[in-house]
Amino acid sequence: MSTAIRDVHELFLPRSADDPREDASPELVRWSEDRLGVRLPRDYIDVLRTRPGSRLRLGGILLDRKPPRKLGVDQFYSFDQIHGLHRTNWNCLPDTAATAHSEWDVPKLLIPFDGDGHWWLCFDYRAAGPDAEPSITYYDTEIGGEFKVAESFAELLRRLICPDRDFQFEIADRSLRGDALDAFLRGIGCRPGRHKHRDTWDFPPYGGVYGDAAYLTASERFSRSPAPRKGGQPLPGIVGLTVDVSAKDQHDCIRKLAGAFGDRARLTYQPPDRSPVSLDRLPVVVVKPVKRRKPGQFSPADAWNAVWNGQVASVQDMLKHGLKVDRGSPRGSLSPLELAASQGHTTMLRILLPYAKFPITGMALHLALMHRHLAAAKLLLSAGVTLKPKLLAGEALAGRPAAVKLLLAAGLSPTPSLLRQLRNLSFESDSPAELAKMKRDYRAVIRLLDIPGEHPTTLQKPHRARTK
Fold first, then answer.
1. How many angstroms separate the CA atoms of 69 and 396, rounded?
2. Could you tell me which residues come within 8 angstroms of residue 332 by beta carbon, excluding any fewer than 6 positions away?
3. CA distance 240 to 228
4. For the chain, which terminal residue's Cβ has fewer other Cβ atoms within 10 angstroms, N or C?
């Protein structure tokens, strides 16, 4: 195995249901390379033999130079996951590359192993050729820019660090979690977080980077050794506490937390762009008892946060205590079902759908199609979502041929009003590449709808709005 490979428990988060399960056998590697038309890096294949693709815990890298400002990417770059190899799983390298090339116009010799459509992190074979060692490139499909992240995949692995820019504590005391952790932190002066999410706290009088008070977030982390099983379920992992605090207050805030925890927790990470905080000779902070939360109690914000972050166990517990999957918060946010659809969380959708009222409203399907999550859309269609002609009209006028094809197969047909609108389409864009892509998409839509007497050449020429 390559020396660039790190401990799998350090590199990846715990497995999820969407992770590929098939080992990277020589036959699977050859099959994938034939589909992609390139030779995959040896270090990438070594990683897959250790873990067949997953979400990363170490997903940050400090770049050698700042990316172009227009891309909105910082020099401290972070990404989400490394897609693996599989013959049927949607979240795998060959299917990801096919989607990027066909739907997002990514160049053929860029092979994405992470991304959401608006951006991609790719093996870049354009300079070296399909049989050589590729560099790693960030490619933006919306703005049309790119920059080099690393010279090779091996270098990317060697330079990976925790993507957070906050301080992190690892709470070794397994009894200090949930309500016990809430009582502990409120006892030293913390209060419920400003965004009302569960397991978040404000810590005045210390200032935060993004607010008037330091912001604390607790989440369950990986276990350092394989977790023993009890009743078929892994035991809870270690709780991590992330602290967002301003540079001028970081010394006092971090020292106070470390003094309060004592030997129950330890500081495991400090931001790479900050001066380190010394923790020698810490004062002891007295913790006052605080009233605990009732078991099973949660707010709409708790449910929204759990669905957004894919916290399956938390959502299942909320469902047992009466979570309504079709209802949003009083402030008008999306329902849990709609949120899962908008994020393309197919595992979460499978958990939520048995609790939904039928027929399911079309908003969830609309959100899945709008964000190009076709796997989630197919799951909703198979569950029995309400189909209305305006759904097809919206996708056709938005120029999304893959969504139009899916809705036509589900039984929808275009209305005369939609055909009239498509016949009178006009385009406007300052980018020639974007304008060409818009034309290709709408021509594909027109071919799918098979408009009588209409051809792709009938699309009007682009025009510019008049300015005074």
1. 34
2. none
3. 20
4. C
Which has the closest alpha carbon to 273: 169, 166, 170? Answer: 166
Q: Which of 103, 61, 67, 66 lies closest to 80 in space, CA to CA?
A: 61
What is 317-376 written as a DSSP string? HHHHTT--TT---TT-PPPHHHHHHHHT-HHHHHHHGGGS-SSBPTHHHHHHHHTT-HHH
- 233, HSE (Cβ side, Cα atoms, 13 Å): 5
Burial (CB count <10 Å: 0-12, 13-18, 19+), residue 205:
exposed
pLDDT single digits (tens) 198-208: 889 999 999 98
Residues contacting 462, CB < 8 A, separation 6+: 426, 427, 428, 429, 435
Joined together, the tokens standing for residue 205 give: 């009088």
Contact 201, 216 (CB under 8 A): yes
Q: Would the CA dihedral through 319, 321, 322, 323 be positive or negative?
A: negative
| Among candidate residues 23, 81, 19, the one with its CA nearest the CA of residue 48 | 23
Chain Cα centroid distance, residue 32: 24
Domains of the chain, CATH where assigned: 8-159 (3.40.1580.10), 167-225+235-269 (3.30.310.80), 387-468 (no CATH)
pLDDT tens digits, one per residue of 225-283: 343 333 334 445 678 899 999 989 999 999 999 999 998 998 988 876 678 898 887 87
Q: Are 345 and 307 in contact (CB under 8 A)?
A: yes
Cα–Cα nearest to 158, from 44, 268, 6, 1? 6
